[in-house]
Design a protein that fits this description.
- The protein has about 110 residues and is α+β, with helices and mostly antiparallel strands.
- It has a single domain, classed as Alpha-Beta Plaits.
- It is about 25% helix and about 35% strand.
- It contains three helices and six strands; from the N terminus they run βαββαβββα.
- β2 and β3 form a beta hairpin.
- The longest helix has 14 residues.
Length: about 110
């Protein structure tokens, strides 16, 4: 499953706060299943992060379990800790039927 998260929180890997925010975000996304990081980009004042998630069944019907994990994050904004809840928006959610199907379990 491919998702794009849009946020005003700095994810700039060249700055200490942005790098820490990026690491925390990737760690939170990787709690429930493996992720593939496709990249980040700055669009105006916002940052977007492009990620492939494996095993979409671990994330809930509308990614509610992922949102729960992200909402509990505390990131740094202007050198101050701020809860990530309300600081992001999932702007794309695309399910790839062929690669996102659960594999058959071994007997």
């Amino acid at each position: 499953m491919n998702i794009i998260i849009d946020t005003t929180v700095s994810l700039d890997p060249s700055s200490p706060n942005g790098n820490k925010n990026l690491q925390l975000l990737l760690t939170a996304l990787g709690i429930r299943s493996q992720i593939d990081f496709n990249g980040i980009a700055k669009v105006g004042k916002n940052w977007t992060i492009d990620i492939e998630l494996e095993r979409p069944e671990y994330w809930g019907n509308d990614l509610e379990l992922m949102r729960e994990d992200l909402d509990t994050l505390v990131l740094t904004i202007n050198k101050k800790p701020v809860q990530f809840q309300g600081q992001y928006k999932i702007t794309k959610k695309e399910i790839n039927i062929t690669s996102d199907m659960p594999s058959e379990k071994a007997p």
